[in-house]
# Entry
Amino acid sequence: MWGRRSIAATRRAAIAIAVRPKPCRPSPSFLSSLSTSSTSSSPRVRPRFNLKPASRLNLISTRYCSAEARMMASADRDILPDVAKPINYHVSLFDLQLGGSWGYKGLLKIDTKITRATKEIVLNSKEIEVQDAVVFGKDGSELAKTTEITYDKTSERVSLKFSQEVSPSDVVLSINFTGTMNNAMAGFYRSKYTPVGEPGADTPKDGDTYYMLSTQFESCDARRAFPCFDEPNLKATFDFEVEIPKGQTALSNMPVIAEREGSHSGLKFVTFEKTPVMSTYLLAWAIGDFEYVEAMTQRKYQGKSIPVRVYTTRGLKEQARFALECAHQTVDYFSEIFEIEYPLPKADLLAVHEFAMGAMENWGLVTYRTTAVLFDEGKSDNRYKNRIAYVVAHELAHQWFGNLVTMDWWNELWLNEGFATWVGWLAVDHFHPDWNVWSQFVAEGVQQAFHLDSLRASHPIEVPVRNALEVDQIFDHISYLKGSSVIRMLSVHLGRETFLRGVADYLKSHAYGNATTNDLWSALSKASGQDVHAFMDPWIRKIGFPVVTVAEEPGQISVQQNRFLSTGDAKPEEDETTWWIPLGIKSGEKLASVDTRALTQKSDNVSGVGEDGFYKINKDLAGFYRTNYPPARLEKLGKSLALLSTEDKIGLLGDAAALAVSGEGTTPALLALLEGFKGETDYLVWSQVSSTLGNLRSVFSQNEAVADGLKKFTKQLVAPSAEQIGWEFKANDDYLTVQLRKLLIAMAGGSGHESIVAEAKRRFDLWATGQDKSAIHTNLRSAIFTLNVSEGGRKEYEAVKEEYLRTDSVDGKEICLAAMGRTKDAALVKDYLDFVFSDKVAIQDMHSGAVALAANSKVRHLLWEYIQSNWTFVESQLSSNNVVFERFVRMGLSKFADHRIGDEIAAFFKTKNTGAYERALVIISDNIRTNASYKERDEALVLEWLRAHGYA
# Structure
């Protein structure tokens, strides 16, 4: 999945690593039975399902996880009783009420292995009503009926008690049940949308609102659609069928195998092929007024190409062309580098109108929010191409890493998400080398991971999860971005070719089963001839990351590692980890020489470089650590930026900013370093400059003299570049030039550059009055809307609000909503928040309002006041989806730099039910404490520096 996010247990567990269960693996006989492909000289798995699939798949599903492993796991996991193991589900849904109650009926038949005599079977179930359950023998004979059905809403389980004992055997568990197609973006749910053009007559409709239906099961919401054994290592195969109106289209993981008449005229049953062995969270289906664009893979799979399709609701399919181009090429690319052919007979992507995440990797039917898969050439911001290419690649990587081989339990979520993040960027770099995405990854991914991991509220990459219901809150920057950052560090150290060879071996060894972090390290150790376990385990299983402090002497430097905390006050007991740190020292006149040694103890000396030479540590920021140079060295590096790579510049700035916050560096030293970037031409470096200045202006925003000085500093820094790049886009502008123009205009306008503000107002007026609707270039909507709302009043705000309501641009609503939140008028802030919580804004986008106001330092306190005054209403609007709820609270309240407000927040939530966002509150507290301490310590120093240099 891309883009996700009680938990007191998780927080406590972040200090210690739980006992690890024995890994579950597919049988050696299965692995040896996998044939090889003739399309490559490398051996490849050929997991196709038309060669006696049932026998192969059922064999694996019955033995992928031993009773011994389940017993060991139960010591540190709250899991289902091991009395029953699923082998195959047959799910049949019918009598769907497409409007009104939105209810449906279901018949579930689970081929089940009973492992010991029992009169009770427990499954996961949420918001499902079970009418009855019967156990049949394989010969069809009735063995037992339910005498009692009970529910545990807290653990989301249903207990089926039977009239007589069922002996150990292979049985069929038959369950009749009813459920609801909810509107919570979880389980089997409905999404409302405004049709483009005339919708089909059978399209689900309630009043004037049209709907499509789809599923979102990760991590624990398959149980919200049907009763099931909803744990990742209880894999099984699935047969699925659904009754729908004849004019509608049904999709699922596998191709349609048959259609037949439904229970009434106008209805049909659609039946799909059996899936491979997989976890419940990967099952998916969708129903709607769909159309699609299609491409065939260039690569042949068992002698023929595979169809790759992007489905949309009617009228939008042409906006799926770019995603389609990315998708079919990426399927082939991953088949090549993973040395395993794409294992399904089709690859579908689906645009879903209401979606809490960015996307979800359901095997064979990947679902996306619309802005992550649709691009309207000429109407969409060019930045969305970058987003689409990455998100498509990330989810397709999961078809192997996560779907074919699944983490054994949720504590190893990072195995799925960290790897998919890294390899997603690898694919984008392969297809778009001109985008320089590894620098983007360093500027965006690595820096965000650093930020969260520098808080005491962080957790290890591999975090113990006792109860699966806790897992939503670790879909965060640690699992995704720190996970991918350490994978990047390891791949650089081992060499990309060696690393990918080890990954391919790992996938082959554990295909259709579950695996652990240790299994990946073993495969990489074998491929590289190095003990990967030894040097990577602290990175995965310990909290935090180090700062390497450098001291210089003639002819040598000393380096020392310590845990880095944003508060700069790590206690001895928090600083016990010794990380393996690749130093990557570039030295020499042009930094042409690279020393690849690693720091493997708390401190060491490095000869050959020192105060009399030129050097830079952590080449291209490949290592996941901060570097603290002596002030004179930092100044020297700041004057030699032409010798540094883009990644080196980003890292230098990021380190200096973080060290200023922690007190191990100073803000005056950071400002002096920033001055050296006045002539910079690289978009991604400017992106880091922008985020660094944005944080400074946010933290010191309440001191008017400092705020004005930093605004002037920003204007003088950015003005030459902004004036040089200008407003006009050229036909031959490359992607990075387009992004640079947008960023520089936004930065200059936001710092009060008079001519740029005036030009932004002129263009906005032409557009708003209808004199010239083309006055605002597509790629400048965000900058111009934001500047005019920020500098203007109700007229400008209402114009952007009106654009939000009428735009048919796929990205237009996101852009408008973000811009509206930059108003400085208290009355408009109130209107804005009422609007955010109205039915005009989809639940999936409500957090955008919190993000916009949190970044608006003049009025962010009004967001906090609104939350307090309207809590019952806010809670009612957000509580239907915990991911959105957590995101809104965390993103809306983390920017304050005032201990008093931090105390207010803690006191306010003390009496609330915070299960959905308890961890977010700890992050908020850490952020506010960090910001407030930083402000108190450096405020006077910053003002003194700004005055001394003519900015204040």
